[in-house]
Amino acid sequence: MAESSITESSIKEALTLRLKATHVEVQDMSGGCGQSFTTLIVSPEFAGKNSLKRHRLVNAALKDEIAQIHAWSAKCQTPEEWEKEKAATGGNDGPHWMGLPGGRSLAWISEHDALPRDTKPCL
Amino acid sequence: MLSRSILSRVRLSCNPSPPKRSASQLTSRKQRLLRQSATALPTTAASFSTAALRPATATSTFSSSSSGAHPLLRSRTAPPSLLLRRLLSDQTRQAIDKAVGSAPVVLFMKGTPETPQCGFSRASIQILGLQGVDPDKFAAFNVLEDAELRQGIKEYSDWPTIPQLYIDKEFVGGCDIIVSMHQNGELAKLLDEKKVLVKGEEAEGEAAEANKE
Predict the structure, then answer these.
(1) Could you say which architecture CATH assigns to the domain B90-212?
(2) Alpha-carbon distance B81 to A109, whole Å?
(3) Which residues from B are below 8 Å from A81, CB to CB?
(4) Residue A29 pLDDT exceeds 70
(5) Confidence of residue A32 (pLDDT cuts 50, 70, 90)
(6) Looking at CA atoms only, how far is residue B126 from chain A in angstroms?
(7) Which own/partner contact pairs does B31-37 have at CB distance under 8 Å and 24+ positions apart?
(8) Can you give the pLDDT at residue A89?
(9) Gap between the Cα atoms of B41 and B123, Å rounded
């Protein structure tokens, strides 16, 4: 596979441009090789859409990018939802995928990283 | 003891092809993986054993149909974006139709329920276990066993990642959606409405049994 040119900033730029996102947080979970990203996307375009439709919107907007990487995780919120959640958690609840209710960590990120590269974990 | 009780409850039958390792190697690998997960996630592992998620038996569709796959579909050098745009063959679509309809709850995942090969698939199977999905109403398909399925399911669902969850033949979503529906209660509601959860009495009985062990 050709070297991936997908970076945190290129994803952020694409989402801001294509989905009119007002706030984007992108974390490269791969340790820099550009293969695994987790994101928080805040866009007014999500209003009135359920979770599946929001994710489909993002998948369509980043179709080529997602096809090039191995792992992709997104949380899609409207500006109102994001403000509400910030107010409720003090804006400090950490990455959204890190745990289940009751504080049980899914604890799979490190395991995921430990998989051999040729297993191409998530796409 | 915990790992043994899980082993006794989970079937391996979602692998379309027979395991290549010898039985003893496989057992030790399974036990190691299960020990790891039991150590890291005591609550989750225990709940998983009570639900005893296991694949349905109708999982060999793809091993039999894959021999007729178009050679390009199996090429390792073609860029993934080209594969994604390739039209799904009727044969593949029919095979996936059949897989999607093989049980009320169907998960396309990497690896098997007992040894997921990806953290996202692991999280999804654990959540279905926590929710108490009835093993008799559940089937898992390992996309790593079949390149045609792995590529085809993405196009079939118009969804770029694995795992993928179907309930009553309807696409529910991937791992992010499963996790958020688990957290906000929507998944419990949906599974209850679709009557795919183990019955209360039965679940308690199994939990008690698991605790004893």
Answers:
(1) 3-Layer(aba) Sandwich (3.40)
(2) 26
(3) none
(4) yes
(5) low
(6) 9
(7) B31/B3, B31/B7, B33/B114, B33/B115, B34/B2, B34/B3, B34/B6, B34/B7, B34/B114, B35/B3, B37/B122
(8) 76
(9) 11
A121–B177 CB contact, under 8 Å? no
How far is A117 from A101, CA to CA, in rounded Å? 31
CB B52 within 8 A of CB B10: yes
Residue appearing with tokens 């039958």 = B13
Q: How far is B41 from chain A (nearest CA, A)?
A: 8
CB distance B81–A108 less than 8 Å?
no
Compare CB distances from A51 to B110, B175, B177 and report the shortest one's residue. Answer: B177
Distance CA B181, CA B191 (A): 11
The model's pLDDT over B120-137, given as tens digits with 9 standing for 90+, comes to 999 999 999 999 999 999
Q: Which two tokens stand for residue B199?
A: 């019955």
Measured between CA atoms, the residue of chain B closest to residue A53 is B173
Assess A56–B contact: CB distance below 8 Å, yes or no: yes
Identify the bridge partners of residue A40 per DSSP, sorted by sequence position.
A25, A75
pLDDT tens track for A45-93: 999 999 999 999 999 999 999 988 889 999 999 999 999 988 887 655 4
pLDDT above 80: residue B183: yes
Q: What pLDDT does residue B210 have?
A: 52
User: What distances in angstroms separate CA B60 from CA A22, A25, B12, B95, B125, one per listed residue?
Assistant: 47, 42, 12, 10, 20
Q: Is the pLDDT of residue B145 over 80?
A: yes
Q: What is the pLDDT of residues B31-72, one digit of tens each?
A: 433 333 333 333 333 333 333 344 444 444 454 333 344 443
The chain A residue lying nearest B152, using CA atoms, is A123
Structure tokens at B149: 């399925």
DSSP assigned state of B111: B
The structure's pTM equals 0.65
Tokens at B39, concatenated: 């150590």
Angle between helices B23-40 and B2-9 (to 10 degrees): 120
Closest C-alpha among B80, B75, B73 to residue A2:
B80
